[in-house]
Amino acid sequence: APHFAAHSAHGPEFGRRCGFAMEVTVQRHCVPSDPQSGLSPLQSALLESPQRVRVVSAPTGAGKSYAFLQALLQKDEHVLFVVPTRRLAQNLALGTMAALIASGLSEKKAQSKVALWSSEQTLELKAAGVHNVRAHCLREFLGEESKTIYTVPEIFSRLLLRRLDAGLSAVGILYFLEVFDHVVFDEFHTIETRGFGLAALCAVLSAKLPGLRSRVSFLSATPLELHPVLSQLGIPEDSILFQAESVENEGRPLHGDVRLLLEESERLID
After folding, report:
1. Per-residue pLDDT at 61 exceeds 70
2. Taking a C-beta distance cutoff of 8 angstroms, is the pair 134, 158 a contact?
3. Measuring CA to CA, which residue among 60, 70, 69, 73 is closest to residue 93?
4. What's the predicted TM-score (pTM) here?
């Protein structure tokens, strides 16, 4: 929880003359960081934990998504990111490409490692003469080069439910869980009912079929009470990791001191 320091900004005399005034400081917050890897304990757990299902909460800016960028860069792994909105998918894809370029990759190479499966991409491909967009999206992945793909639950579901080209008819949920090292549901506290059903299916299959490649992660900026639901789905306790990022005074800063001055006034415009 944040630490607050509060005091009267101008003393009791000011309070009598002009009404209430108070200064509140939200003190500097950090997450612990390993000096060698630069990763926090939570980020390391997302990459290395043997549990098949991970339920993770950490503040915005703590680097939940960054951990999976390292899965791409350091471990050469495939990552499927399912996020609640198209805009978030676009922003994450652009951010990942920028990070790959900053790491030394050429723009062309960075673009080859990041894909965005969205309705806008569907329209662009159809305009370019691609008739079966779903088959095209999946063929992007048939190579060995590691990739991160960003999409929304609706697009992911369509890839699973619609008919594909000859040669891709066997593609289904098990195909995705065999190809991807990580299937990540980001901002999970905002997911809608249909998206939750898809996420639950991925978690059950990953936990009960240990031969599958994928580990499934649920990420949220707020704590998730998923334990009763996962238990009802029959997922074994030892297959689930529940972890929150610790917030400390030293380490990698999330923000510096934030000072707020609250004053009472007769008019809002003042």
Report:
1. yes
2. yes
3. 69
4. 0.78
